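fwd from M.: "can u put these together and see what the complex looks like"

so here's what she sent:
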Amino acid sequence: MNEWSKAVSGHPIAGHTASTPTISGNRGLQIEEPLIFEQDSPGHCGVDLPEAPAVRSRLGGLDRKGPIGLPGLSEPQVVRHFTRLSQKNYAIDTGLYPLGSCTMKHNPRLNEKMARLPGFADVHPLQPVSTVQGTLELIDTLAYWLKTLTGMPAVALSPAAGAHGELCGIMTIRAALEARGDKRSRILVPESAHGTNPATAAACGYSVEAIPANPKGTKNQGRVDLAALKTKLGPDVAALMLTNPNTCGLFEDEILDIAAAVHEAGAFFYCDGANFNAIVGRVRPAELGIDALHINLHKTFSTPHGGGGPGSGPVALGAELAPHAPVPWIVHGANGLNLVECASGDAARSIGRLKGFHGQMGMFVRALAYMMSHGADGLRQVAEDAVLNANYLRVKLAGALSLAFPGTCMHEVLFDDAFLKDTGVTTLDFAKALIDEGFHPMTMYFPLVVHGALLIEPTETESKASLDQFATVLNGLAARAKAGDASAFRAAPKLTPRRRLDETTAARKPILRWRPAPVQQQAAE
Amino acid sequence: MRYLPLTDADRRDMLAAVGVDSIDALFAEVPPAAQHEGLLDLPRAMGELEVERRLAAMASKNTVAGAVPFFLGAGAYRHHVPASVDHLIQRGEFLTSYTPYQPEVSQGTLQYLFEFQTQVALLTGMEVANASLYDGATACAEAVAMAGRVTRRNKAVLSGGLHPHYRAVCETYARFSGEELLVQDPAPAGGEDLAKLIDADTSCVVVQNPDFYGEIRDYSALAQLCHQKGALLVVVVTEILSLGAVTPPGEMGADIVAAEGQSFGNALNFGGPYVGLFASREKFVRQMPGRLVGETVDAEGRRGWALTLSTREQHIRREKATSNICTNAGLCALAFTIHLSLLGEAGLTRLARLNHATAVSTAERLAAIPGVKLVNRRFFNEFALHLPRAAAPVVDALATRGILAGVPVSRFYPDRADLADLLLVAATETVTADDIERLATGLAEVLR
C-alpha cells in the first residue's frame, strides 16, 4: 500500500502552472518515493542468512517478546528506494556549493578507495598494538603533516568534528590554567563567531562575552575591535576564541597585536580553524601567536560532508597545552609505535578521554591521501586558488550585489542585503530563487554582524567557467529583483522535488518518526 | 594538480580581473612575519598510483580481522555488511552533500534521517530518536547532561558495568561542566546496588545492556526506583544488534537510550567513524542534543521533511544551546538505515539468533578448557571468561599464532590485578565452526 501517493493526490497542486498533474505524482525524473515503512512486504528480507543452529538459549528469559515493526523488502526494492532518495539531493558532485565557512570542495574518490583497504577498514580498535602498526604509522604520519602545516608542536587527533575539537581545545586551556593555579571564568568570542564557539565555552563552564567588530566605514572594518578587546581582557578571562580568516572572509590583520594582548592578560588564544583552507601551506597558525586550533578534516582536507557527518576535528596544541591533550596518545617505543590509552603515568595531566576508541580513523586515511596527493606545493596552491576564486567572484558581483566590506577578501566573500532594499525580496527569497537556477544557496543570515548576510565560498575546485556561470546567474537575479518581481522570488523554488517547507508547523507540532496508521482507519478505507 | 581546475592562463586572467598583479597581493593583510616563504618541508604532490602504493604499504602492516579467527568486541563488532550498503552510501548525492539546512534540495538526506530516527525508536522501544551523534560514548555523556537539564539535578550514578571508554568520556565532560558523578567499581559479576545511591540530587542512573562483560540484565525494577525518586534511567547499548533478540530498554522503563550503531552498515575502521544513537521519551524532546528531522508539508501541501526544533541548537541558541554539537554522523547513519532496511524484521531477528547461537557454541567450547570459567549467566553475542592466568599475555601469544582471541579487560584497567584474568570474547555471524575450533585449540595450548 502506498500511503504516499494518496497524500499527493489528496492535495491539488496549487500554484503549479507549468503542467497538469501527473497520475503518479511523479514529474519526469523526479520520482515520488514513500517511506521505507510504507513499502512493507511482511516476512520479506534483502539479506539471505542461514537459519541459526539449535542451541540452549542463554538470553535467560530476557528475550524480546513482541515484534519490532521493521518493514521487509528485497534488495532491489531497497536499492531503488535509496537511489531515488539520493536523486532528491544537491551535492558537490552535481554542482557548485557556495556555502560560506563550510568549504564544500571536491571529494576525491581515491580517498574513499584508500579508506576501504581491508588493512585500514577491517581492523578492530582493540587488537594488540603489534597487529596494528600500519594504522598507528598512518595516524603518526597524519599528525606530522598537521604539525608541519600549523607549526604547532602537538596535535590531538581524537575529536570527532569541529565542535568536538573546540571542546577539546577549551578543556585543555582550562586544565592548563588550573595547573597554574589560575581559576578564570570568562571566554571572549567575537560577534561574528560560529554558534559552536559560545556553545563550547558554556559547555566547559565559562560565561561568554561578545567582542564587537569594527563597523562598516571605519578602520579595520569587519574585524575585531582591538580597543574593545583590550578593555574586556582581564585576570578572569581564560581565552579568546577567534576565527581567522574570520567569517566575514577577512584576515584579522591585527592578529599579532591581538595575540600579544591576550597573552599579556594571561589568557590563551584559541583559533577556530574552519577557514584554514584560505591559508594552508602559506601561513602557519603558530606564527600568528595561536595556542590551540582545530582543523576540520571535512573542510580543508576534503573528507566528505556526507549530509552532515561524520567529520573529524584534530586540534593542534602549543607547548603549554600539549601535556593536557586527551588520550589516546601515540608514542614511539622500542618495539615500534604504542598507544597510551589511560590518563595516568606520562599522561597523568591529560584531560582524559573525549571519544570511544581512537578517533575518526576512516577520516584520517582520507585526509592523508588528500595531503599526499597535493603535497606541500599543491596545498599552497589550494589556498591561493581558493582566495583567487573568491576574489574573482567578488569583482564579478560587486556591481549588482552589495559588498559588506570593501577591499580584497580571503577564501569567501560577504554581501549584505542593501542591494535588495525596497525590492520586497529578502535574502531568503533571493537564495531560494538561486535553487531554481540549479545552484545551492550560499550561507544566509550568517555572520550576524551584517544585515541579511550572504556569504559565498566557492573553494579552489571550481573552474573559471563555473564561476562565470554562477556570477551571471546571481547578477541576473539581482537585476530581476530590482525590476520588481518580488512575488516570483517569494514563490521560489518551483522546480524542486518539494517547494518551501512549512518549518513553523513542523516545530510547533513535531512529528519526528513514522507511526503505523491506526487500525480502525485502515478498516474504514 | 589533478584536483585544481584553474589553468595558469585562468589565473593570469582572473588576477587581471581582480586588479592585482600577483597572488601575493591578495595575502597582503597577513603580517609579513607570519607569511611562510616558499614551500613547507613536506613531500611534493603525488599521482594516484604513488599514493596508493604508499598507503597500501602501511595497510599491509596490519593484521586484517577478516583474515584470521577473530573474536573481538568490547563496543565494536565485526558484522557482514551487504555490498549494496557501501555502494549506495558512495552515491555522490549522499556522500558529497552538506547538512540539509536547505530542505528543498535535501529531501533525500532528510527522508533517510527520518527513517533512521524511526528505526532507532523502534529498536530501542523509545518514543523518539535524534538524527545521530558522534558515537556511543559521546552519546552517553550527552545523555547525562540532558538528564541534568530535565531533572534540574546535578548528580549522576554510573554503573560499574558501563563500558570504560563511555565512563571515561562522561568523566571528562563532567569535570568541565560541573556535574557530579558517582562512578561504581567494575562489576563483572554484577551484584551492584545502584538503587541505594539514588537521592534527591540524582539526575540519572546510567546502566548498560548487555553490560560491558556481556551480561544481559533486567533493569525494570531499577527504572521504577529511579522514577519514584524523580531520577531518570539512562540505558547504554554498545551492541545494537542485541535488540533483535533482547527486551529493549524502552520496555524496561528507560527514559533515555544512548547507543553505538556501528554494527549496522559500518566497518570496524579501527574505532571510527561510528554512529551514536540517541533516543528518549517524547516529553523530553526539547532538551535533546543534536539534529532532529520532522515531517511537514510544502507550499503545495505535499508531505516533506525539514530539520526542526532548531531553537535547541548552537547555530540559533549559541551559549544557551542544549549541546555544542553541529556535525553528526550522517553518512554512518545512512549505512545503518540501509543495512537495517535490507534486514527488515525477519532478517534482523534471524541475524540476532545466528549471533547468539554462534556465541553460545563458542562459550561452551571454551568453557570446556581446563581452568577456563564462563562469568556470565545470560549473554547475547559476547561473554567474559576467567582464565587461569593474566589474559593480556595469552591474547598476545595467540596473536602471534594468527588468532585474534578477544579483548583483555586489563587493557582498560591496567592497575586492577583483580581483573587481569578476564577476557572478553565476542562471536558474531562472521565466526565459523573452524574459527571456534582454532581458538579453542590455540587457547588450550597457550594455557598448557
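replying to her w this: The radius of gyration of chain A is 26 Å.
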